[in-house]
Every structure is written in structure tokens, then in C-alpha cells.
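Lab notebook, page 48
Experiment: co-folding of the full assembly
Goal: obtain a model of how the components sit together before planning crosslinking
Operator: M.T.
Materials (sequences as entered):
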Amino acid sequence: MSNPATFQMFRSLINFFGLVFFFFLVGCSDQKTNALSKKENLCQHSQYLRIYNHKKGFKVEILDPDQQRKLQVFEIQKPYARIAVLSATHVGMLSALGQQEKICAISNAKYLLDPRVKQLLQLKRIADLQTELGFSAEKLLQRKAQVVVYSGFGNESQQLKRLPAHMLKIANFEWREKTPLARAEWLLLFGALCGQFAEAQQLFEEIQANYIRIQKEVQANNHSNQLPVLLSGNLYGDQWIAPAGQSFEAHLYKDAGLAYLFNNEEGTGSVFKSLAEILRKGPAVGIWLNPGLPSRKAILKQYPKAEFFPFFKKPIYCYTSNTNKYWEQAAVHPDWLLSDLSQIASGQTKKLHFYALLK
Amino acid sequence: MITIQQAQVGYHTTLIDIAQLALPAGQIYALIGRNGSGKSTLLQTLIGQLPLRAGSISVGAFTLEELQKNAALRAKQVSFVASMFTGVEALTLRAYVSLGRVPHLGAFGRLQATDLQFVDKVLQVLNLCDLAQKDTRKLSDGERQLASLARAIVQDTPLMVLDEPASFLDYFNRELLLDQLQHWVQQKPERSAVFSSHDIDLCLQKGIPILVLHQQKLTLLAKPTKQEVMALL
Amino acid sequence: MKQRNILLLFLVGMLLLLLSWMHLFVLQQEQGTYSSLIFWEFQVPRLLSALLAGGGLSLSGLLMQNLFQNPMAGPYVLGINSGASLFISLLILGAAPSFLNELSYVSAAMTGAFLAASFMFVVSKRVQNTQSLLVIGLMFASFTGAIEAVLQSFAAPEQVKQLFIWNMGSLQQMSAAQAPWLGTITVFGMATTLFLVKGLNAMVLGDAHALQLGIKVKQLKIVILFVTALLAGSITAYCGPIAFVGLAIPNLARALLKTQDHLLLILFSVVAGSFFLVAIDVLILLLDPWMTIPVNVLTAVIGAPYVAYLMLRQR
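Observation: model returned without errors.
Model output:
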């Protein structure tokens, strides 16, 4: 990264692929959660989010994933009407609750899916904070946001320090969770913010039930010990970057009945592998997932030698047929994700939500 | 032999105007003049770096115009020593002197045995053999200036031009340099040298013909006295 | 003295052969058995990339140091890569996909490199010291970086990703089909350089003296600029920007050989540059079981302190 041009590109990529790059920032965190206090934590899965009933509203604790200490503690006593969200995933969670009207600003309109949000954006009831220089704290102030939810990624929080103290700033560490259900559970936070907590709880219960049902079906249908071997990720320069063995992706692959190639790799973030290792392990791979590109042609354009990958002729699936949908809805709908992956694993795909077979 | 006719010398305006002047071969000439009188400009013209504004100058059998057009030819006719050479990293004195042979070498710049013999002979004459392998940046000013002289000598041209070659040297080295220059000129009849200097006394003492440059005029004094020189300045 | 240098050259050459053999047959095979397809499509191009990029970049560094009469010059620090990078960005982001072929790619990189080199050369006439020149090189790089950033905001994410990956620099991107292209261009550049030896030798004394020694300085400089752009541009096109090789190796050559004879310097720079990059790649292969390291990380780890040392020593 010594070249300024490279640095610029790196920055733009952070803006564009925010979530993809979370793996650069993976810290080590231990599994243990503190014993619950007297009051009951309403979140069962999340490691970094705790919600308690408090007076007439809620008390929320957000834990720092890197240090396992409380980063933010605040109360929500009345619903908020003007919420700014800095990630597509947050837009997806609010949309899932039908609370698009409460959004006053978003971070980048280029990557939107929800038609209602797009409409509100056109009516200028939602502001796009994105500028060429990254997200603009000034625009956020102009929109009189009461709450701003950010993903705690990159230098966002530096910008946010400039905002006044009365504005509620919430770090959304959904992307650091280790299980798909824990990610979806962040719905509850948005429910609490909008005064829709019961509805959020109900939606989450449905998602959870769905997820567990598919998981059980997969287990029931798996009679052989020969699970299809899955490789994920793609080559970035000299490194193959793929989810690590304890990441929520690896979790999903396992639940979907896939034998993930890096299942035994330590860590919750990403693994970095050399091309030589990929080539060595390549012949065993039956499915290639998430090359991050929409077609085989695009893969070859980025890396012409990919045609010699042993798994290039195997089925390749990616969410790139509708990337915006993936970023907006995948976190809130792990059941859909699991449904997709279990169909991919079985070799028979009927209806895929996010994924598509690359041509 | 340098012949000058109706020459106008200068960059943008005429700085020196010479009606007619001939400098016979077999001599070294000291160019004397006040600061800013145009000594360097005249020397730059003589070595073919600066075109004449008018008139003509010929060096031996060639006009300056011909020499300017043909760099290879010029390099065999005129050599040049600057007032200061600061040295180059990893360049030994012998390698530096050997660069004087460049005009006589083939495309790959390889020195032949005869070139090396010539270089070593010159080093011997100038008493530089002990320093031959020393980095040019680690030499003293005097040693470097002698090396520059050696480099010009191995270039083996009829005319050698030196721009204040002695300005950074002490008295003994100045004398040594002039002696060596006189010695060189006397080796072959077609040789001559022109050098600029501020050291009138030393030149007079050595009986060197003096070219006085003052207010656009160049005057040759074959065997001058100090009064004659000062009268012209 | 001369014999010692020739011996040294021979020694590094032998080591290069040994390392190349290790690279191809020992280290990579040890990790498993590959099909011959993978051998020819992945291993051989990777070794060729290291050999050609190492030799070509250090040669272009040597030429630039001669041209700029500045030992701190090099294709990376003076922004020659940035020029190539900018033009490749323009091509990837601007041109129709059908226009994206071998020839357009390489010529875009070369045009960018040539323009950057010429620009820096014109500017260098106006600054006297090394530090200023390096700062201007840095400014130039951030300038082209800024333009690239603006271009990217109009680009599709895929194109941005492609550029990002290319900008990291890699010896594993070149395909077997591309190898002959790069090979031909690099060998042509090196061969041309051998005919410049006399001029390069004289140029160490500066323009005026070289001119006085019968060298056609202007012509020579244009040829140097052209060859530098040819080498740095084509290598950058295929391998991305690879830092420090071009700057460090020629300095090492002068320090070790203690000569300004460019025939020796050219041969040694090419061999030592190839040796350096192959050695780095061998190191990457050796470390592979524990960690995967991008090539530019290692060249920087080894090259940057050496360059810093050279800067300090210059004072």
C-alpha cells in the first residue's frame, strides 16, 4: 500500500465494498460472555448486543468486539422518528420492519434495493450522505437526525466524533457476529429504536424457526458422509481470501451441508492462502462460491489464468446477480441464505434468493 | 592553429567582437579578463557548445560550424577541462582518465590494449599512478584537476580548452598544471591550448602569451609586460 | 579488480540458476504434485515474471539514474509506474471491452511511463538536489493517484476491483501466453541498452562533458527515455507496480563492483535484479506454510531500509 494511487483505491474500495473488507479488521475475541445481571437480556444469540427492559423502554449495551467491553450503553424510552443509517444492511433491517419512513439519511444511494427507500430518496425525504470524500457529517446534521447507526468500520467513527453529544450514535457490529442468527438478531435494536420491538421480536422468531427447520431438513436428508466440498472467495493479487473456519459464513456452509475447505482454519474473520495451496487443494473442490464477480467471463478478465483452476469447470455461484439485494437483505434473512446454500449443496436449485449460477 | 575572422560571440547579444586574430599552434594561451567580460562565453564558443552570431572561427582544418554539426569529429579536435570536477561515486581516477578515450572507441566503449597503455603513460607523466584506483570523490582538488588534465590529454586533440583550470588550486599545483600543459603542447607541432585565468603574474613569469579580453575586444600580447596587460584592462 | 567483478557476476549468475531451479522444481513440487498444465501455466510464468521483472526494472533504474544523474532515481520513486498506472486505469475504465487486448494494455502502460518519465525529466532540469526531485516524484504519484480516484468514482465496482488488484503488484498474474510478449520486449530493451554503453559511460560526467567526448547527448537521452518506458511500462503492465528493485539494485551494483563501466553495471544489474526478485519469491514460497505474503511487502521490507541507508549516506 505504499503507492498513493493504491491507497486511493484502497479507500474507494472500503467505500464500495465496506462489508467485504471486514476481514481485514478481525480481532481476536474470546467466546465467554459475562454472566447476566438480574434483568434478562432479550438477545439470545448476539455477542455484541444486549437489550434489557428498562422502565417503560429499553436499556441497550453494545460491546466492542475487539475488547469485549461495553462500548456504548444507552436507554431508548421513546421511539425515534429520524434515523440515519450508514450501511445497506441497516436499511435492510428497517425495511424488513416496514419502517422506511423513519430513515432520514443513508450513506450511499448507489447501492440500494428497497423500492420504498428509493422513492423516499427521490422525494428528498431521505438524504444521501455520500460525497466524493466519503460520508459527510455535515449533511447528517442538516437532516436533523436523532440517531445515527454506523457499522464501526474504517474511519466512520472519526467523522462521527464531530457530531453533537445529544445525537445518539450506535455502532452496529452485526458484521462481526459469528453466527448467522446472531447477525439477524440486530433487528431487535432497530425494533427498539422505532417503537416496533414486539414486531421485530416476532419477525426474528419466524426467521429463526425457518432457519432451524431448513437446518434440520438438511441434516435429515444427509445420508452419505460425502458432503460436497466448497471453496469460497477469490484471488486478490497474490492472496486467496476466504472466510475463516469460525466465521458466520463457515457456520452457514456447515448448516447447509457443505464441506467447507477451510473449516478447520482458526479465526472468525478471513484466511489468506497462497495460490499454490489453492491449486494443491483444488482438485477436491466441487463448488466454487463467491468469486465476487457476475460471470465466468468476468473472472477470466480479472485473472486470465483462472481457466486453469481445477474447479473452474465446476458450478460457480455468487450473489453478484443482485449484489445490492445481498448486502441489504442477507444479514436480516439468514434463513433465505441457508435455503440458497442448501439447494446449492444438494445440486438441485429450485428458487434461489440471492445466489445465481455463473454462466 | 585558431583563426578568427569577423566573429561575433555571445548568447543573445554580441559580447565579444573580433575582427581578425590568428593563434599559431605550438603555444598555450592565457585568456585574461575581468569578471563578466565574457571569458567563459568565448571558451564555450571555441569548444563548439555555443554557435557564433556572425563571422567564422576555424580550429586546424575545420570551421567551428563543421565541428558543431559533427560531435564525433569535434571530440577528436577539441578537448575541454572545466574549473572544477567534483568526482563521481564508484568512478576511479584511472576510469575517469580513460573516459578521455571515448571518442576513439567502438560502440560498446571497450578500451583496447593500446588505449590502456596510453592512459597509463599519461598517468605516469603526471605522477598519478599511485592514485589510479582511488575513487574520484576521495581525491583532493589538486589531484582531481590533474586527473581532468590527464583526461583531456588522453583525448589526444590538437586543441585543448581549459576554463579557469587553476582557480581551486594552491600555488604549487597551479605551477605544476601550467608546466604540464606547456609540456603537452610542445610534444606535437599542431597542438595548442587556451585557458582562462586570473593569475597574470604566474602567466607572465612563465612567458605565456596572453589574450586580453576587455570591452568586447580581444587582444593578443605575444610577450607582454605587466604594464601592457594592465593598460588593456 | 576487473577479474573480481567478473567473478562476482559469474557467482550471482550461478546463484540465480540455483534459485530458479529451486523455485521451479524443489519448493513448488514439494508441496504436492501438479499436473504438467499447472506447471506450465502457473509455475513457469511465475518464475519468468520474477526473472524478467527483476532484471528489467533494475536495468530501467540504472538507466534512469544515469539519465537524471542522480543515484536516487528509479522507476517507482519518480512516478514512472504511476504514469503507467494512470494510463492503464484510463484504458480499463474508458475503453470498450473489445479494445482491451495485449497490445492496447502494453502500449497504454508504455505511453504512460514514457510521458511520466519525460515530464519528470523536464522537471528535473529545474531542481538541483535529490530530495526535491524525490518530493516531486511523490507529488506526481499522488497527483495521478487523485485522478485515478476520481476516475474510479465513475467506474463499476468490478473495474475498480480489477485496478485495485493490479495495483498491488504480483508475479502470479502473467499467463503463459503473455510471457513471450514480456520476454521479447524486455530482451529487446536490454539488447538496445548494450549499444548505449559508451554514451552511458560518458554521461556520468554530465551532459556538457559527454557532449565534448563526442556523445550525441540529446539522441542518447531520448533513447534512454524510450528504453526505460519500454521496460518499466511493459513490466508494470504485466506485474503491476513493483517497488524498490529499480532503485536499490543499481546502487548495490555500483557499491559492490566499484565501477562506472556500464557494460559491467548493465550485466550485473540485470542478473542481480533477477536474482533479487527470484530470491524474494523463493522466500515467499518458503514462508508459505506459515503465511502468504504479497511480493511488494517483501521488496519493501528489504528494499526500503536499504534505500533509506543510501539517502542517509548521501548527505
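Interpretation: The first strand of chain A starts at residue 49 and ends at 54.
Next step: discuss with group before ordering constructs.
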